[in-house]
């Protein structure tokens, strides 16, 4: 079921869509036991390109087509690049993505390239890339599809509608990773349109936690590449959402993120990318009460190298029953 079932709450027609939205909300029984909460996982990796970015991109690229654009452009740590490239391809538009050189996970880079986008590796970080593409968009007739684009937020707010529809009411707490801060802004907009106000608990990586420290981070560093952002474009909107919801934004370490990432795969059967696990790491570290939804923003196959680095080794075996018995049964 597509997010376009909420078309009456969206500003454009679905001109470019791949059935995005309608992602699973999964009860996390092990996490519920660990935390004493009723924990649910919003599995956004089930979107067409494997991340929540598709929610906003279907609306933003539909708007670009409606406005007669021929080129869409974005800065990205990876997921926006993959999504923008896919939707540009589907719309018959040219796509260009600017990524920090050497700082994009393999799965995301592969997607952007396979969708035919022009991929530019900037010798700088995401914040520098976003500054450059904003200048580019001001000078040329291209459609900028980063989360500074209001259509992106409009699409992403539908995740809040889905959470409420699935549960029958708003959760008490929503835990969410925070990078450029567009998604937490979108969830708050969605809940607000429904008249709901769950507490928003945002989590940044310790090495990239400008909202926590109250100042930009010039050289953000974290294993969670999707939230390796030092100066969020939606800073004021996000802080307004945390304040209005009586929530908070906090930091979690890379070790805590990776532990949560491993736990989700091994105990809940949910494979997400490292940045997604920040929401669960935050819940485990800081706790919450009542019914809690943790947003998992992207699929684990986005970053296969981190998975291979964390996983146990493959067991070699000869093609004989005795050898297989030993390998399987110990």
Distinctive features:
single chain; about 325 residues; alpha/beta; 2 domains; 6-stranded mixed beta sheet; 10 strands
Structure description:
By secondary structure, the chain is an alpha/beta fold. It folds into two domains: 3-52 and 151-309, 3-Layer(aba) Sandwich (Rossmann fold); 53-149, Rossmann fold (3-Layer(aba) Sandwich), CATH 3.40.50. The protein is 42% helix and 15% strand. It is built from 14 helices and ten strands. The protein has helices at residues 29-35, 53-66, 79-91, 106-114, 126-139, 150-156, 158-167, 182-193, 210-213, 235-244, 254-268, 278-286, 304-310, 321-329; strands at residues 25-27, 38-43, 71-75, 94-100, 118-122, 143-144, 173-177, 199-205, 248-252, 291-296. A six-stranded mixed sheet has the order 1-2-10-7-8-9, with helices on both faces. Strand 4, helix 4 (106-114) and strand 5 form a beta-alpha-beta unit. The chain is globular. It starts with 24 loop residues before the first strand and ends with a helix. The model has no long low-confidence stretch (mean pLDDT 96).
Query: Mean pLDDT, as a whole number?
Result: 96
Q: How many helices in DSSP terms?
A: 14
Largest sheet: 6 strands, mixed
Unreliable stretches (pLDDT < 50, length at least 5) are none
Main sheet: which strands, in order across?
A: 1-2-10-7-8-9
Give me the CATH fold name of the largest domain: Rossmann fold
The radius of gyration computed from the alpha-carbon positions, rounded to a whole number of angstroms, is: 20 Å
| Principal-axis shape | globular
Quick one: CATH class of the largest domain? Alpha Beta
What is the correct CATH architecture of the largest domain? 3-Layer(aba) Sandwich
């Amino acid at each position: 079921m597509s997010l376009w079932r909420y078309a009456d709450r969206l500003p454009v027609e679905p001109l470019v869509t791949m059935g995005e939205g309608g992602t699973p909300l999964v009860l996390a029984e092990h996490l519920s036991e660990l935390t004493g909460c009723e924990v649910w996982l919003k599995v956004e990796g089930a979107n067409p390109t494997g991340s929540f970015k598709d929610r906003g991109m279907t609306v933003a690229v539909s708007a670009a087509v409606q406005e007669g654009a021929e080129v869409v452009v974005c800065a990205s740590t990876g997921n926006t690049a993959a999504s923008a490239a896919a939707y540009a391809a589907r719309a018959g538009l040219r796509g260009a993505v600017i990524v920090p050189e050497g700082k994009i996970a393999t799965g995301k880079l592969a997607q952007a390239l396979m969708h035919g986008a022009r991929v530019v590796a900037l010798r700088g970080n995401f914040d520098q890339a976003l500054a450059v593409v904003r200048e580019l968009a001001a000078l040329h007739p291209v459609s900028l599809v980063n989360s500074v684009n209001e259509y992106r937020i409009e699409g992403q707010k539908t995740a809040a509608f889905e959470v409420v529809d699935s549960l029958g009411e708003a959760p008490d707490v929503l835990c969410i990773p925070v990078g450029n801060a567009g998604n937490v802004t979108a969830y708050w907009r969605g809940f607000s349109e429904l008249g709901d106000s769950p507490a928003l608990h945002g989590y940044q990586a310790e090495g990239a936690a400008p909202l926590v420290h109250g100042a930009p981070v010039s050289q953000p560093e974290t294993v969670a590449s999707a939230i390796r952002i030092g100066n969020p474009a939606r800073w004021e909107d996000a802080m307004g959402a945390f304040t209005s919801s009586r929530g908070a934004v906090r930091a979690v370490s890379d070790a805590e993120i990776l532990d949560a990432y491993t736990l989700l795969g091994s105990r809940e059967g949910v494979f997400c990318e490292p940045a997604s696990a920040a929401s669960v790491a935050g819940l485990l570290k800081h706790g919450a009460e009542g019914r809690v939804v943790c947003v998992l923003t992207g699929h684990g196959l986005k970053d296969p190298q981190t998975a291979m680095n964390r996983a146990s080794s493959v067991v070699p075996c000869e093609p004989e029953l005795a050898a297989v018995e030993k390998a399987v049964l110990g």
